[in-house]
Amino acid sequence: MSGSTGTAEAGASAPASGPEREPALRTSSLRKTYGRTVAVSDVDLSVPRGAVLGVLGPNGSGKTTTIRMLLGLTEPSSGSVELLGHRIPEHTGRALPLVGALVEGPGFHPFLSGRRNLARCAAMEPALFGADTGTAVGQALERVGLAEAADRKYRSYSLGMKQRLGLAAALLVPRELVVLDEPTNGLDPAGTREIRRIVAELHAGGTTVLVSSHLLSEVEATCTHAAVLQHGSLIAQGELNSLLESGGPHLLVSVADREAGLEALRDSGVPARAENGALRVELSDRDAPEVIAGLVRAGVDVYEARRERAGLEEIFARLTEEES
């Protein structure tokens, strides 16, 4: 699925609708089964308006199935979905004009050019009825870096270029919500940076963005919130900073004598270990100034100290291992 319908003039910021605190997305006991196979199990998800949510999970964790139910593409076996304040699938026609989506790769006509394919999408946008669709198409192609390849046939496009065209269709008009399923699939590093830039622009404009990705570094760099799926169940969700802090902050300390430093810390009951030429000190019940002062009192010369927290890869591994 690439693109959807829209309600605002191309190039403008999408206005928010509904009560200020109403989530952009909300599910309750969302479940999908195929025979005896449970693809999604009782997912309760809430996404604040204006957030950039990274949906994480191993292959087969239920990410794409969940996204398809959110967009009304797959009917839930049980549970409910609210999309921008509208019940799905009962009021799909009201919600989807406000949504742009790129799910499971774009689908276009191979013998048409990128520009003509996008023009066909623009012709179905209610917000562009009677308008100059050529301008909207040109702006969308420029935005995703396809202006120079716009008149080449779609069948000649690389996988990355096809992804870019699908993203252009999703962004033909302003959206209140943009859903991107593995948007960097097939992109080179430069293309990945462009996706990051576009997500940042959408976020700055108040658009809610949902990004499903297996690239944890990209989620950590672009998202404000995260949701982790495992075996079809939602095992963690919330602000990304809070999830990262849950892994426990630590201090990396460079000292003149690592053995003396470790001995001093352990004598004080401070958990620490040697790591990459420094000391990794867990800040579970001590603060950084107290740790440094203790080392100095013990006669250990401290060269450098910096506070760090667990990375998303570490948190993700811990969460998924706990649920295995």
UniProtKB/TrEMBL annotation:
Pfam families the record matches: ABC_tran
Alphabetically ordered keywords of this record: ATP-binding, Nucleotide-binding, Transport
Location of the region described as Disordered in the Swiss-Prot/TrEMBL record: 1-30
Which regions form coiled coils?
A: none
* Residue stretches of biased makeup (Low complexity): 1-18
Q: What Gene Ontology terms describe what this protein does at the molecular function level? A: ATP binding; ATP hydrolysis activity
Domain ABC transporter intervals: 25-256
Q: Does the keyword Oxidoreductase apply?
A: no
Q: What family is this?
A: Belongs to the ABC transporter superfamily.
Q: What is this protein called?
A: ABC-2 type transport system ATP-binding protein
Q: Which organism is it from?
A: Actinopolyspora biskrensis
Q: What is the lineage of its organism?
A: Bacteria, Bacillati, Actinomycetota, Actinomycetes, Actinopolysporales
